[in-house]
Amino acid sequence: MNRVVHPIEVESYRRMRARLDTSHLPPLTRAVVERVVHSAADLDYASDLVMDESSLEKAHAALHAGAPVVTDVEMVAAGITRRETVCRLRDAVAGPGLTRSAHAIRLAHEQVGPGALWVIGNAPTALEELLALGVSPSLVIGLPVGFVGAVESKAALRESGLPAVSNVSEKGGSAVASAALNALLYHPVSHSEEKS
């Protein structure tokens, strides 16, 4: 089903592209960069985001083949359109040395197993827990926001070698994390992906 794009979004993208040249980027990287920049009205994300096109291609195929999407918080889930998500935060409880967000990631991991797309936009401790669990994801969108632990958790994600979208600074949040996933959802499926 084709997505109907509102005229305001069309004009917003036109204005953004007048200020930011993304034409040199590979297709999925460009889609993620533009949607994240658009969601935050922050051109600095173009140089702050870190991702790899081949990882995005594999994640795009997995997503469109029905791989589960897991979020750390309901705000991220609310921003993801056209797809059901798993968010176990309501079932989670904090304990000694374990935040509620981290416990929610444990519960979700038990539920979905390998191959999921993980979208972390709020809690650095959720991303830290995900890395500690030794997951085998299709992709980790690790864009938690904050001055405590956010930069470090995103650096750890990049060092893990997992397929990922992250950024270098303290910036992030629910809107940009869901935007990165939506970029993959909205990007058309190629004929080769449909056959595989």
Describe the SSE topology:
Layout: H1 7-19, H2 27-40, H3 45-48, E1 49-50, H4 53-64, E2 69-71, H5 74-79, H6 100-112, E3 117-120, H7 124-132, E4 139-142, H8 150-160, E5 164-167, H9 174-186, H10 191-195
Parallel strand pairs: 2-3, 3-4, 4-5
Antiparallel strand pairs: 1-5
Helix pairs in contact: 2-9, 6-7, 7-8
Order of helices and strands: HHHEHEHHEHEHEHH
> Strand share of the residues?
5-15%
Total DSSP helices: 10
**How many strands, which pairing sense, and closed or not: the largest β-sheet?**
5 strands, mixed
Radius of gyration: 16 Å
> For the largest beta sheet, what order do the strands appear in spatially?
1-5-4-3-2
Low-confidence stretches: none
- The helix content, as a percent range, equals 40-55%
Topology, number of strands: 5
Give the N-to-C terminal Cα separation: 19 Å
Determine the mean pLDDT: 93
What's the overall geometry?
globular
Structural class: alpha/beta
Structure report:
- The protein is α/β, with parallel strands linked by helices and 196 residues long.
- 51% of the residues lie in helices and 9% in strands.
- The protein is built from 10 helices and 5 strands, in the order αααβαβααβαβαβαα.
- The chain has helices at 7-19, 27-40, 45-48, 53-64, 74-79, 100-112, 124-132, 150-160, 174-186, 191-195, and strands spanning 49-50, 69-71, 117-120, 139-142, 164-167.
- A 5-stranded mixed beta sheet has the order 1-5-4-3-2, with helices on both faces.
- Helix 8 links the parallel strand 4 and strand 5.
- Helix 7 runs parallel beside helix 8.
- The longest helix has 14 residues, at 27-40.
- The radius of gyration is 16 Å and the shape is globular.
